[in-house]
UniProtKB/TrEMBL annotation:
GO terms assigned for molecular function: transferase activity
Signal sequence segment: none
SUPFAM superfamilies, A to Z: Nucleotide-diphospho-sugar transferases (SSF53448)
Name this polypeptide is given: Glycosyltransferase, GT2 family
Keyword Transferase: yes
Location of the Glycosyltransferase 2-like domain: 7-115
Keywords (A to Z) from UniProt: Transferase
């Protein structure tokens, strides 16, 4: 395991156009050592052929859609870096994104997971006044925002899985993504809650902005996103209500801190999801 290497784990399922755009943005805007770990969940287009042309990349090809959590776990197991980034293939990163995220992990030892702000994400990380009109204007907007919010951020109650940086040691302690949340939704909530229960904090880096298209990692229209969310909300509710008072997820969502406060002690037999 390299102490200076970050493994960027990207899941794909069709939408080669989005994947190419994401890969090109990372290559263009990343200034520290990294490797690629691509997990393809059964693409029918030319995604695999393209991924095999990307330098310094491991490509894992699944014959069927194993879901977001299982794919991420495959990538984490294959990674050689001391740090992992889970990055959606429908994102476009901006100059210095990764080094700025790393800065927060180095500065505040209690931080277990750090994420950026974006245009299309849960409200806690959303920038509602993103003023770029096209991707050609994105880098300039992001750099201006980075200066305005230089070294600023805050502790959120959860992070969204479109882009999360964390050390491998976090996974060694709390386990990987919970694969019951197939094909996707709530696995990132669950991961963040386990990190917090185990004593880590979360961080939103306000000086890192990335563009997010939205739902591209799920393979376009192959999966009904809303139906997946509803089913996994019920699984999530059942998991975190076992042996405890039940909680509800209403139209306003839920408060992750209620769960963290209730789960006073980190219990590996209950909380850790083995890879």
């Amino acid at each position: 395991m390299s102490d200076s290497l970050t493994s960027i784990v990207v899941l794909t399922k069709d939408r080669l156009d989005l994947t190419k755009r994401c890969v090109e943005s990372v290559i263009r805007n990343t200034d520290i050592p990294f490797e690629w770990i691509f997990i393809d969940n059964g693409s029918k287009d030319d995604t695999i052929e393209y991924l095999q042309t990307v330098q310094n990349a491991i490509v894992i090809q699944n014959s069927e859609n194993k879901g977001f959590a299982a794919g991420c776990n495959q990538g984490i197991v294959a990674a050689s870096g001391k740090y992992i980034v889970l990055l959606n293939n429908d994102t476009v990163v901006t100059p210095g994104w990764l080094s700025k995220l790393h800065m927060w992990l180095k500065r505040v030892p209690s931080i277990g997971i750090v994420g950026p702000v974006s245009n299309f994400v849960a409200p806690i990380q959303r920038v509602d006044d993103a003023v770029y009109q096209s991707l050609e204007e994105l880098d300039a907007y992001a750099e201006k925002r980075s200066l305005l919010f230089k070294e600023k951020g805050f502790y959120p109650h959860r992070l969204t899985g479109l882009c999360m940086l964390f050390p491998v040691e976090l996974v060694n302690r709390i386990g990987g993504m919970d694969e019951r949340f197939f094909p996707g939704n709530y696995e990132d909530d669950d991961f963040c809650i386990r990190a917090r229960i185990s004593g880590y904090t979360l961080w939103v880096a306000q000086d890192v902005f990335i563009h997010h298209e939205g739902h591209g990692t799920f393979g376009g229209r192959d999966i009904t996103y809303k139906l997946s969310s509803l089913k996994n909300a019920d699984k999530f509710r059942q998991k975190w209500s076992v042996g405890r008072s039940a909680f509800e997820i209403d139209q306003c969502g839920y408060n992750p801190s209620d769960i963290v406060t209730r789960e006073v002690h980190f219990i590996p037999a209950r909380h850790v999801e083995k890879l």
